[in-house]
User: Fold these one by one.
Assistant:
Number 1:
Amino acid sequence: MTKKHLLFVLVLLTGLGLIFGGFYSLYPQTRRTRVIRKVLPDLTVTNVKFFSQNVFKIEATVFNKGAADSKPCILELKVGCGSLKTLTANIPALKATIPGAWPNVKSRHTVTFTSPFALNTVMSVLTADSTKVVTERNENNNTWRKDNCIK
C-alpha cells in the first residue's frame, strides 16, 4: 500500500466513526454522578416542660431525628441571670428515626432536672450534645433557650 492508500483508509475510517459513533464520539464521554450524603444523627431538644407546682423542676426530651444512631452524649442545663449554674445529665445512644415509619421510642430520652433557682425568674438554656461528641447533620438545632430574667 502506498501512502495515498493509507491516507484514504484513515479518512474513510474516521468518517465511519463519525457516522456510527455520532459527533460526540470526538469528545470525551462524561458520566453523571450522584452525590450520596453521609447518613448522620441529628439531636434536638424537644418537649420542654415547666411545672407550676414546683418552679425548680424542668423536664426536657432529647430526640434523634437523624437517619443514623447517635452515640451517648450529655444534656446540659444552664440556669441563672448573670452567672449561670450548669447541670448535666447523661443521654444514652439514641436510635435513628426512619422517615415515614412510626416513631421509635428508643430515638428519644427524657430527663428531669431540679434547678437551684426558681425557673420562672431565670434564663434556662438546654443543650443536647454540649461536648460535641456526636457528629450531626445539623449542629445548629441542639439548643433550647427561655429567658425569664427580671430586668
Note: The chain is about 15% helix and 35% strand.
Number 2:
Amino acid sequence: MMGILEIDGKPLPVDQFKGRSSDKCDTREVSQNKVQLSDEARALYEAQAKKIEQIHEEVRNGFNFQQEGTERVVELLLKDLTKL
C-alpha cells in the first residue's frame, strides 16, 4: 500500500528515496525499482529546501510586511519581469 507524503519544504531523509517492496509480492518474480539521484541533484534539492524554509520563516516573522521586506520583494519581481 502506498502512502502520500505531505511536502512541507523541508528536506526528506535520504532513506525515503529508496524503493519499497510489498509483502504481498511473489518472491519468485520480484522486480525492484530504484531511483538514484546524483550528488548535484541532491545538492539542488537541499538548496531549494533551505530557500523555501527561509521564505516560510520570513512569512512567520512578518518580514514581507515590513518596508525592507516589501522593497526586496518588489526588486525581485522587477528583476524577473525584466527577463521576459
Note: The mean pLDDT is 78.
Number 3:
Amino acid sequence: MKALIAMIERSLALAPTTSRLISSGHVTRMVTAIFLLALGLIFITRGVTEPERLALTVVLGICFFAYGGFGLLQALRLRKNGDCS
C-alpha cells in the first residue's frame, strides 16, 4: 500500500512537467509544419526557375508542401479540440 501511495505522490509531482511537455509538443508540431511548407516552396521555386527544370525537384517540393499542410492542419485541429494543451 505504501508503494502505491508513493507512486501516486510521484505522479502528482510530475503533473506540471507533463503538462509543459505536452504544450511544447504543439509548438514543435507547428514549427515542423511551417518548416516543411517553406522547404516545399523552396524546392518548387527552384525546380520551376532552373533552366533544366528538374521534375524531381518540383515533385519533392509538392510532397514537402503537401505534408507540411497536412501537419499544420493536424496541429491546428488538435489545438482547437484541446487534445494537446
Note: The two ends are 33 Å apart (CA to CA).
